[in-house]
Design goal:
Largest sheet: 6 strands, parallel
Number of strands: 9
Shape: globular
Structural class: alpha/beta
Number of helices: 10
CATH architecture of the largest domain: 3-Layer(aba) Sandwich
CATH topology of the largest domain: Rossmann fold
Number of domains: 2
Radius of gyration: 19 Å
Strand order of the largest sheet: 1-4-3-2-5-6
Helix content: 25-40%
Length: about 280
Amino acid sequence: MSRSPMVVRTVPALRRALDDLRARKATVALVPTMGALHDGHVSLVRLAKRRAQKVVVSIFVNPTQFAPTEDFGAYPRTWKADVAKLAAEKVDLIWNPDVKAMYPEGFATRIVPEGPATAGLEDRFRPHFFGGVATVVGKLFTQCRPDVAVFGEKDFQQLRVVTQMARDLDLGVKVIGSRTVRERDGLAMSSRNVYLAPEQRQAAPELYRAMKLSAARLRAGDPADAVMAAGAELIQAAGFELDYFEVRHAETLAPITSRKDGPMRMLVAAKIGTTRLIDNIAV
């Protein structure tokens, strides 16, 4: 049976634990999560272990990135199963603060990101989101002082925002993106997949299928407008309500129309029933 990782819930306890981890000049990797861990999260932990000698996983469901209409209260919380997964991966430390530890009374400072945070993708539909993400990740970086931090590519705009923030603010952490882990039928793993009804779960892989078909057409040189319109029709025909389906510059997230404009990333967000799914692939 795997030994459970140390769990700390206050900043002073975190600092003491990190001092112990660094006692022999060990490098530290941070994997920020909101819990409800699945194989995608496990892949982040495994990449972190390859990039540093000690691994810290944070589990904190961050209220500031949820709008009042979103699912903060219903967001899945699976603490015992999460700890068991992290124990099996031999994680060194779990940072599990409560809301009061992260946002104590009188908390009045926010990070307001621009650049990729204002690309007109997720920010168009969730204008509160990246301010909440940047603030909590900025806190996690200053609390844990990791050498590297690992984020999944599934949340691609978030990865670009966090990378830019760490660079702009000289936070001293290298942000690493880890490839999206998928179910056998192509659906990107997500904690929100548990909300899908059986018929919705059956339709959900159409997002990935539409992206793959559209990416292949773009690589073949077909006009971007026609390709993206056809892909959007496929997604909507599968029962999705589309928020966006776009191809952007892979680094800046600026709109582009051709592979000649730079590396391309295809990004999608759509609802099926009440569940909102996001995904992306390289073109």
